## 1
Amino acid sequence: MADKKITLIHSNDIHGDFLEVEKDGVKTGGIARLSGYLKQKRAEDKNVIYAIAGDMFKGSIIDSEYLGMSTIELVNQLYPDVVTLGNHEVDYGIAHLLFIEKCTHFPIINANMFIKTNHTRLFNPYEIIEKDGIRIMFIGIITQEVLAMTKTENVIGTFVDAREAAREVGVICDTYKTTDIDYTVILSHVGLEEDIKMAEMLPKEAGVDLIIGGHTHTLMEEPMVVNGIPIVQAGCGTDQVGEAELLFDEATKALKGFSWKTVPITESLCPIDEQVAGSLDTYKNETDEKYAQIITTFARQLTHPARNQETELGNLFADVMQDGSSFDIMLLASGSMRKKELGPVLRVQDFKEFFPYDDALHMIEVTGAELRKMISYMLREEAFSPEGHTEFYQFSKDFRVVWSRSKQAFEAFTFKGEEIRDDQMLKIALQNYHFNNFDDIFNLPMAPIVERHPARTVGGSICGIYEELLSSGSNFDAVVDGRITVKE
């Protein structure tokens, strides 16, 4: 008897990456080219499944201008078989997410978000897809950050611990053992490190065969096998997809072979889907017309290559916000800057795609000792792990640190060239998300800090402030000048 082959294609963290780009003369990515690749694969093979492991939303002006509705229309045309939630799916609110779900032509699954009052799940926890007589169960798991994003929605909860998530997966697998399931996939958005923890905790009898992950934007060259379970993730955006080939014995339906690779979505491999391109052009033309005006210019193109290091754009934006302000230090979240380069001409659209999170700016007053604890926690080893996805900050120019990884200690911790004393009081500014989740992000209780000196809201719209400040000047420049020095 012949083996049965199923091709499982997956994306994660698309983040509104709808437009193709040209790299070294090669056109790469874009949702129309991704759709072309999927259509081509489906034409060649009837046994193709396409799954998305969360975070379709946020990252482009086309997504944010239409509050995700444009994203749903475009993703509908990819005809995904199953999608799980990412943390950015709740950026427009739970109520809006539930409305958007009604507009999808694909199932959204999630096993660990629920209504607290009666413990009712918000979504179906799993989806069973049958191809050529092979039944594959997908179970959706979301990151703990969804709780932080929904702090104002007190009726919503989630299992946030890897152990609890593993237990929930085990319950689902155990409950449906009586159903004829041949292969089980966790479609996860908890990040690679948490996927590893979850895989370690899953008992063999749960029968989980594969974890397809997201959230940490990890571009893997080969699967990571933990506790016998392959874990895969395909970077982010539409530049590539992950592709697994599953071979099943026709008689027993047992898995006989597994292989996995990433496939680049390039013009040589993937034709353009003209229907999707037409839909995309409609949205792009409208946003281009609305957001084409120039805010300012930079002296050159500036970069933000990684979230866990000091960057040119991080320094520029931290300084612009701190100059002339009422606070001493701007701690600007690296993760709130979503593009790796910007300029030399800065248009409104470029800025909104680079900095898509518009929220309030808050000021608190901390001691030097408290600030040391905050920054040492930011610089913990997890921050430098490819599996990690910790919060990291860019500093305004007067604040500098030298951190020794081998000693796990600061060799220098200065403000305006002077070593910061433990009893020295410093005013720091934080974005709303980081202010609201201060205790978890910095591993330090905020209550004593704001009891000593009440917090102040110093701006209602950080994006509005940036647009105003940047538009008042031109030819901005910044360099990496040693504000965050990390010794190996």
Note: The mean pLDDT is 91.
## 2
Amino acid sequence: MEMKKAYLLLEGIEAGIALKVDSLFLESLPFIFSHWPYEVVSETDREIFATMELKDNGRFYFTSPYIDSKDSYRDALNAICAIVAELAWQRLREDPSLLCIHGAAASFAGRLVVFPATRKAGKSTLSVAMAAAGIRMFTDDFLPVSVKDDGIIRGISSGVSPRLRLPLPAQIGARATAFLAQRPLLSNKQYTYVKPLLSENAAFGESLPLGGFVFLERSDGQAAEMAEISKAEALKTLIYQNFSRAGNAGDILAMLEFVASNLPCYLLKYDEAEPAIALLKARFSGWEKALPHYYPRAQLTNEAANGAVPFTSYDDVSIGQFMHADGVQVVATDGKRFLTGRNGQSIHYLNEGAALIWQILSEPTSVDEAIEILLAAFPEQARAQVEKDVLRCFGEFGKNGLLKKIEMNLGQAARCAESSAA
């Protein structure tokens, strides 16, 4: 097995990847980076952010300062899959202004419809079926998103070929089956990469404005139907599927709230791909409203570039009064609340109970006081459960820097101690 030492350099990424691999690995690259220009060189002066090496045991080992463990892969295709995932993170590390949504995206009437990823919803299968139906794909897995000075939010093509999990489902349809038979494929036992024509997939770096979101729910025998969903549900799913944790959580939350509130959001239930695509084409044949303009929030005076604000984390919240910490960003949509953690890199969803406790904490409040307030408001609730919920909530808020402790004078401290002892 002849090993080749080289470096993989991709357009738009400053750092490169060191390779010590065989010829089969190198011959696989064009199938996967079909629309992302790259070169393999023998020498480079660029920074190296990861290494892929084929060892004598026949496994590929992927190492990086950003990966905690040494991951290994049994074949070239799985190894390159790992590289694709890490390249998504590297784009964000090099440009923290980007938001990245885990999902597929396709062009409809000059705007992007985004299909956020949910487990076993068939986004990649639907992506290939859409390409077969003449819909231009931007990505089937991750979509970098940026905001320019004009306030238009745009999605950026990844330039990576779509990947299907094997075996192919019958629901992909006859049209997509014929499409696959006419395109170069790279497969192993788990996956197949489909190399689309240049006209079928946007090139790396191409961008279009975001037009709307379609959340997928696939189940056997389900007739294709699509209906609008609440902004709160859209926002919650978008937060879970966003993985741009290198950026400012306040900016991320603000942008996601904006798109969920200003762009149409639908739930598409389906089984067969072709009827679902017919619905999509009919719904997004044109756009009734002009594009909304988004302008990022102003940075707080004591806020670092990554959104962090100096804060104290509290391990013990059982004694003393607490209230909202300074600099916590709050977004409320359809009665649901989301908070940004003050480390600049976390977003917290408040369920109904946590939202009530957060509301109580707008004024200085102790754990015991919060318990009594809730018991007075909801006398039918068991005290033990209320005590458990309040202590857990205070603990989570305190640990994540969402609270500040109120300094008390000696008289106040004595009364608080007496209350706790009672």
Note: Confidence is low (pLDDT under 50) at residues 299-308.
## 3
Amino acid sequence: MTLLRRICLLGVALLLSACGKEPLYQEQGYVFGTLVEVSVYGEQEPRARQAVAAVMQEFQRLHNMLHAWQPSELSELNAAFAQGRHKQVSPELAAILQDATQLAVQSGELFDPAIGGLIRLWGFQADTFKAVLPDEKRVAALVAANPQMSDIVLKGDVASSRNKAVRLDLGGYAKGYALDRAAALLKKMGIHNALINIGGNVLALGSHGSRPWRVGIQHPRKPGPFATVELHDGEAIGTSGDYQRYFEVNGKRYCHLIDPRSGQPAQGVEAVTILTHGAHAGVLSDADSKPLFISGVQGWREAAARMGLDEALLIDGNGKVYLTAAMQKRLEFTDKATVGKVEP
């Protein structure tokens, strides 16, 4: 029995013992390097189980296709780029690259999946992270090479790169894409009320009975949520934080969110959370938070406007909360004494 299946079964057992007669079915798994959970409300267990199994299979398919450093279609493409070769890609991957390129341009290249080489240098293309700083000259060389999504040339289903330094890492896109794919699958199977959670990126379908789905926003420095928010049909929430994928050297924290301009992990921010909606709410919840995080306290609001985000918040390195007026209306802080600085 695989680890994924064992975790899934454990999630079901916990649900059945805890939820009694409530028509809520949940399964957990581990994919994309993080915990995933799918909840279905208002369906008989066999039907819900079948739908969730299809979603979990889709997650694994995408994981196998988009893995940045293990054998995958994406890693094969990276090898071709490094050798200056053309490579035929699936129509799905071609569409993903086109979409990611548009988001990169919109973000002013602060969302840049082409900097996989920098992510690898910092040790974040691994399941565990060593507290070792990379060679400064190698970092500087990659920054000077300036790999960008716009370096990629797509002609039909054939991809090439004008820049051999391009090394794709879709870690800031794939979870959101998987959310959208899961939502489409569930709708196709007639499931109208569900909550899909991939490592803190969450998308809602329908409602939890007579009320909206309510989710917590993880506190970046303490156990449990620092706020909760109701998600309505088709809405998604995404958080970029420095508290899951990081290491420390001499008391300084280095996280996986790399600033393409400097080649260094972004500093001065603990977390950014955004709310999105629409046909591609999942992708946007994943990709659009990165430019805000990297822009920091001084530039996050401008970055939010550039990405078309009305509902966003940032927690700085001192734990101070900054948020938009629209986000303030949606949040319920766990600590009622919490005061956020509202920026128009």
Note: Residues 16 and 48 are 13 Å apart (CA to CA).
## 4
Amino acid sequence: MQQLSIENLHVSIGDQEIIRGLTLSVPRGEVHAIMGPNGSGKSTLAKVLAGHPDYIVTEGSVTMDGENILEWEPDERARKGIFLAFQYPSEIPGVTIANFLRAAVQSRMPDGEELEATDYYAQLYKKMDLLAMDRSFTSRSVNEGFSGGEKKRNEILQMAMLEPKYAVLDETDSGLDIDALKIVSHGVNSLRGPNLGVLLITHYQRLLNYIVPDRVHVMVRGRIELSGDKELALQLEEKGYDWVKDDIDEPALA
């Protein structure tokens, strides 16, 4: 089965264990949401999947369509089909969006194959239209001087152009007003299909009104404590996270 599979994952940074026995599978063609309180390890999981060197996997496995991604460097993970949309996207002064994306798309093509400029720009403009992005964005430096909504739309534009197998969206709704949230959600929904698995990390149910998940998982203190369908997010909205943590006596993570 084609899926991103995480089994009994333990992750530490320094001498602190942050993820403690997390197991989760995201099949291609499905959107899975992870919700949880601050300090539960959600963003840590995103960084581990992308290959951040500060986070050390001490136990467990992560496979993509049966291949062990923990053996791959971050750039190899990206080329083979893992995409991370950051909670706080970085600025890259002096590098235009058009040049940045062209280099990224070219890097995923077979050796010796060149990206045709006309094909590239036709695809770029098509994807920009999905996200209501003005064509002038192509000449702007990546995220430099961008609003929160513009940064998040730019992240989804990158996802659209790279066509990953699995996308990890880390709090894509953070800092968005309602109009920007609708545009970004429309962009994500337009990319849904049998060839893409999405792991959507969020604090709030409001995002799930626009990107309706196939499954919802509650992450507390480094592991998945509860899973269910989209109705689970509504329960969390009503009851908060304390009702999930009632039977957990361990101290919260920093």
Note: The chain has a mean pLDDT of 91.
